[in-house]
Write a structure and sequence with these properties.
Length: 124
């Protein structure tokens, strides 16, 4: 079992930055491929980024590539999402997820554990 808790969301103006954190507790954190998703009201959950167990490989959705950066600190059981050049369309609840798969990107079904989310609002 893995428990995930997101933090760092809030209100920011367009063009600004936020850094989200996800704290993991429970089983060995470095056994999990980690991902970030978001969900806006009335929309499906959307893949944002994922990172390999060691942190050496990162993957991004086209909508955030070049603006968002995913990273992890296995010693601290943390995964981060640095969000720069934010846009109003980035407003959503952001979720952290963990997968036991050795490789996974945008397949929601392959993630085994989810946090409760942290809201991000970008004003124009």
């Amino acid at each position: 079992q893995v428990q995930l808790v997101e933090s760092g969301g809030g209100l920011v103006q367009a063009g600004g930055s936020l850094r989200l954190s996800c704290t993991a507790s429970g089983r060995a954190f470095d056994n999990f491929f980690m991902g970030w998703f978001r969900q806006a009201p009335g929309k499906e959950r959307e893949y944002i980024a994922s990172i390999s167990r060691s942190g050496s490989l990162q993957y991004y959705a086209n909508s955030v590539k070049g603006r968002f950066t995913i990273s992890r600190d296995n010693a601290k059981n943390l995964v981060y999402l640095q969000m720069d050049s934010l846009r109003p369309e980035d407003s959503a609840v952001y979720y952290c997820a963990a997968s036991r798969a050795t490789f996974v990107t945008d397949n929601v079904q392959r993630y085994d554990y989810w946090g409760r989310g942290t809201p991000v609002t970008v004003s124009s």
